[in-house]
Amino acid sequence: MVTARLSLRQPAQVDAAAILGILSNPSVAQHNPSDLVTELEDVEELVGRWLGHWERHGFGNCCVFEEKTRRLVGNCGLRWMTIRGDRVLNLLYRFHPSTWGRGYATEAAAAVLHWAQESLPAELVVARIRPTNLASQRVATTIGLRRDPAFDDQGEDGMDWAFTNRS
């Protein structure tokens, strides 16, 4: 998947060190402290889980690269999960702080949401966001998701607000 400035592709184990450079940054995990990863082995295991989802479902979390520099700057994608008994597509995105404010998360998330609406039109897409994570909420609402308290759920680090594509 390619956007104006980014390319998104299935992760590979060779990406683990660059992913560690993002997920080990305390600013990236500020709203989800349990997601902080500091060991390469843990990232390799995480990439293995991402690849397992790809193998089972044909889609999943993507590595996001700047088209111009080919630098890995984040991850964005979808994964199946269950919220309150309903199977949904969880939209997730994480980017290195050096890219914040450039619209990369919005650009990547919009592309992934568009893919979901074209490929899996009957499925509910949910972005789970902490009430204090205003930047992530802006990404969700900018791409057309709406606050949907019916899917609010307790996350590992606290309450997650739901933003969905439900009309």
**In the CATH hierarchy, what is the architecture at level 2?**
3-Layer(aba) Sandwich
- The CATH superfamily is identified as Gcn5-related N-acetyltransferase (GNAT)
As a percent range, the share of helical residues equals 25-40%
Distance between the termini: 26 Å
Helix/strand structural class: alpha+beta
Query: What share of the residues does DSSP label as strand, in percent?
Result: 25-35%
Give the tally of β-strands: 8
The major β-sheet equals: 8 strands, mixed
CATH topology: Aminopeptidase
InterPro entries: Acyl_CoA_acyltransferase, GNAT_dom, N-acetyltransferase
Protein name: GNAT family N-acetyltransferase
Pfam families: Acetyltransf_3
Please provide a written account of the structure.
By secondary structure, the protein is α+β, with helices and mostly antiparallel strands. It has a single domain, classed as Aminopeptidase (3-Layer(aba) Sandwich). It has four helices and eight strands, in the order βααβββαβαβββ. It has helices spanning 16-23, 40-57, 104-119, 134-142; strands at residues 6-9, 61-66, 72-83, 86-95, 125-129, 146-147, 153-155, 158-164. Strands 1, 2, 3, 4, 5, 6, 7 and 8 form an eight-stranded mixed sheet that branches. A hairpin with a 2-residue loop joins strand 7 and strand 8. The longest helix has 18 residues, at 40-57. It starts with 5 loop residues before the first strand and ends with a strand. The mean pLDDT is 97. Pfam families: Acetyltransf_3 (PF13302). InterPro entries: Acyl_CoA_acyltransferase, GNAT_dom, N-acetyltransferase. It comes from Terrabacter terrae.
